[in-house]
Specification:
255 residues, Rossmann fold, 7 helices, 16% strand
Length: 255
């Protein structure tokens, strides 16, 4: 899939994995829409990167909001790539605590709504726009890259909602790729391990000292540009489809 003379959508594009991905896709020649709720960060990045980049305030749980972001991308150029890397809150508590109190059902629902239902919302609407494109090399009209997590494979204590949501993203990958094959839209997913992002709310030096030694090789947390580089590789390689790629330094979460 060629990035030049096409548009790309990055949901969650204002920070962390998303910002790194936006920068890579812009450098590769794509017009990019930054879809995020973080308006200050999104507009700052838009101003820095200049022409060919637009910020659109977007809530992935809203059909109308996602459609507005898709429409903005189509105004630039044919939408041929979409990266779904938005974040969201996850409470991080056991299903049943020591006092015998259950995990709030509404919190579980909200996490799944953001990470899983939101991902499906983006995928379906992006695919609808891509299906209208003229086919390119190998008959491809577009590619969607979602973001899972290694927690979707081996979740840790207190991650029931997050693991369930990311496990759903993993399961969506092959099924969606099969659904969208007739219109020439590929679907891939990236499952990151422990990466340093602003979500840690500490210095990178402190985070690396705490979590870096748990990674088998290399013994450090991942850098967001390593995620972005993989996302770009997936977009540009038409034979990658229907697969979840772990990027985790061989880390496996233990109990």
């Amino acid at each position: 899939m060629q990035l030049k003379q096409s548009s790309a959508l990055v949901f969650g594009g204002a920070g962390g994995f998303g910002e790194a991905t936006v920068r890579r896709l812009v450098a590769a020649g794509a017009h990019v829409v930054i879809a995020d709720l973080a308006e200050d960060k999104g507009k700052t990045l838009e101003a820095e990167l200049g022409d060919g980049v637009r910020f659109v305030s977007t809530d992935v749980t809203s059909e109308d909001s996602v459609k507005a972001a898709v429409d903005a991308a189509v105004e630039f150029a044919p939408l041929r790539s979409c990266v779904v890397v938005h974040g969201g809150p996850a409470a991080g508590r056991r299903m049943l605590n020591r006092a015998g109190e259950t995990y709030a059902l509404e919190t579980f629902r909200r996490t799944v709504d953001i990470f899983l239902t939101g991902t499906f919302n983006v995928m379906s609407q992006a695919a609808a726009a891509m299906a209208k494109n003229e086919p390119g090399e190998s008959g491809q009209r577009g590619v969607i890259v979602t973001t899972a997590s290694i927690a979707g494979f081996e979740g840790q204590v207190g991650q029931t909602d997050y693991s369930a949501a990311k496990g759903g993203v993993i399961s969506l990958t092959l099924t969606a790729a099969r659904d969208l094959a007739p219109v020439g839209v590929r679907v891939m997913s990236i499952a990151p391990g422990t990466f340093f992002t602003p979500a840690f709310r500490m210095t990178e030096e402190d985070a690396q000292a705490k979590w870096g030694p748990t990674v088998p090789n290399p013994k450090r947390m991942g850098h967001v540009d390593e995620y972005a580089r993989l996302a770009q590789d997936i977009i540009e390689n038409d034979y990658l489809n229907g697969t979840v790629i772990r990027i985790d330094g061989a880390l496996r979460f233990n109990v």
